[in-house]
Structures are given as structure tokens and as C-alpha cells.
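Quick start: read one record
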Amino acid sequence: MAERGGGGGGGGGGGDRGGIGRGFGRGGRGDRGRGMRRRSGGRRDEEEKKWIPVTKLGRLVKEKEITSLEQIYYHSIPIKEHQAIDFLIGPGLKDEVMKIMPVQKQTRAGQRTRFKAFVVVGDLNGHVGLGVKCSKEVATAIRGAIILAKLSMIPVRLGYWGNKIGKPHTVPCKVTGKCGSVSVRMVPAPRGAGIVAARVPKKILQFAGIEDVFTSSSGSTKTLGNFVK
């Protein structure tokens, strides 16, 4: 009995040790998981503060060999790092979320819902970009759309309506853009006319630095994805 009791005690000790081991292992894994999440967040902040370029264009921008976006556009260099745009434009770059819409995909398990974000960025001085990103979470979709908008920034040519006095303020000529069934026509306007447009194109034209323009749109403009493109 004593031996059995000792054996039982030993078993109990083993059980206790096993329990401690399992509990410790579980706790360790949980702590390690949480720690990794915290560290990844700190790493992301450090990456945002300290940018280490990985492309030739990024290195040239950081070394200040390239000082403006026009030099990049002139040589048709693809932009692969959004930090280069932040470095060149700085705090003058503004962004706005145009729309967040849920999209669904039918699977065998049911419907899978994700969120699609449309974001416009611009410096109010002849550069504008549009980003579209779909993700499971709204914040992730917006963050990805901002990055894509910076990577897809394009130069916008400005012109005059009449006498060439002051800075360019309108589009240089009549121009038409089309996406899907939506067609938007822009006509130069005299100084002081303002942006005569709907809410969506007005915001994009403001971000592009256009001050005066007449617009005419046709088609299914309620489809904001095509309208904003």
C-alpha cells in the first residue's frame, strides 16, 4: 500500500508536473503569441520612421539625387515604394476615402464578405492618384488603398483659359475620360469660375490642383468605382 501510495504519490507528482508543464507550455505559447504581436507593431512603427530603400529609385530618392516627381515621370521609372512619394512630397500630400463598399463571394460554406476601399491622394499641385483595395477588414483596406494610390500617382497638366497671367489654373484643353458606361468631359473655365462638377470628380480635381473647370458627365454615375476612375 505504501509502495502503491508512493507510486500514486509519484504518479500524482508526475500528474502535477504534467499539469504544470502543460499549463506552463500553454501560457508560454500564449505569452509568446501576444509578445510577437506587440513586437510586430513596434517594428511597423520603426519601419515607418526609418525607411530603408530596396530599389534603385528608392536609393536615388533617399540620397537626394532625385528631388521631384517630374524627374521620375520624365524617365518613365516605375515607382515600387510608396515611401519615395512621402519623401519627395512630404506633409503636403493629402488623402481622402471616397467610398467603402462591402463585396461578397459565394462559397460552399456560405457568403464571404470583404470590404473594398477607394482612396484618392494628391498634393494640390499637379499630382493625383487613385487606389482601390479589397480586404477582410476596413482599416486594412484603407491602408492598402492609400499605398496603391501613392504608387499610381500621375502628373496632371494644367493650363490657362485666356491670357497667361499668373499660375495655370484649369485644364489646357477639352478632354474626355471614360470607364465602363461613365463618361466625363472637362472644359477649360475662366479664372474664378471654380470647379463645376459633382462631389466625386470635384474632390479629385481639387487634389490635382485644378481651380477652374466645367464638367459634363453621362452614364451610370452612381457606380462610384467607374465614376472616380
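The helical segments are 2-49, 56-62, 69-74, 82-89, 138-151, 199-208, 224-228.
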